[in-house]
């Protein structure tokens, strides 16, 4: 249940909620449609994310939320439309003022700007925690082991697990493993961090520790974060803006207070009724 004002609010910035014109965009989705066979998952979606913005995307299962961020990781390719990240296009590159198909080198460079934490931890069970975090910077970025370990320890300290460097995933709780997964993404120094329902696989008593780590990252202010979540208290506290997705379209977007307390759409009020007491959302009690 979401309780109004139940946690300290983080600083909000960047997006102008009335116009949704982002002052300094780092991500742009332009006319994105995604189909799986005859099923339209995203329907002509347009969305900008500001540099340093904390954007939460909410909506029912099957609304297209995860597909949005999987596209940024190039795990899914748009059926049509373009995606732009910090000066470069995904799947395309600009040559002589025209967009042409991107080569693998270009794709690797753009992917390097993005980090993602998945629902499942996907840690290597045969590797220590330190090696789980250092493997990618050594293999992908070409760092020396010494450099990678120094960076990894810093990230593990940030998520409160520096003392676990020599342990194995099986020796950690689910919440601790997810915090390692966050450190593993951070160690690559991405410009945009994606979080896909990162607490959905955790026991309820472990959810809080992971959300607190993400909120601490948000308080640092500089990192752009796109989050898929069903934790509405968390979305309220961390977000500059909340986007409600319905059947592959943005139905409504705005400040956390607007979307969670007084949404315009009856569809959103219906969705929120599963999470929020009737008194928390204007008009919800009278919505049929």
From TrEMBL:
SMART domains given in the database record: AAA
Task: Extract the Pfam families matched here.
Answer: ABC_tran
Give every ABC transporter domain span: 27-272
Q: Which GO terms describe its molecular function?
A: ABC-type amino acid transporter activity; ATP binding; ATP hydrolysis activity
Query: What is its subcellular localisation?
Result: Cell membrane
InterPro entries in the record, alphabetically?
Answer: AAA+_ATPase, ABC_ATPase_HisP-typ, ABC_transporter-like_ATP-bd, ABC_transporter-like_CS, Ectoine_EhuA, MetN_ABC_transporter-like, P-loop_NTPase
- Matching CDD domains, A to Z? ABC_HisP_GlnQ
The alphabetical list of record keywords is: Amino-acid transport, ATP-binding, Cell membrane, Membrane, Nucleotide-binding, Transport
Give the matching SUPFAM superfamilies: P-loop containing nucleoside triphosphate hydrolases
Principal location listed in the UniProt entry: membrane
Membrane topology classification? Peripheral membrane protein
GO CC terms for this protein?
plasma membrane
What does the similarity note say? Belongs to the ABC transporter superfamily.
NCBIfam families found in the cross-reference section: ectoine_ehuA
Protein known as: Amino acid ABC transporter ATP-binding protein (PAAT family)
Native organism: Melghiribacillus thermohalophilus
Give the source lineage, highest ranks first: Bacteria, Bacillati, Bacillota, Bacilli, Bacillales
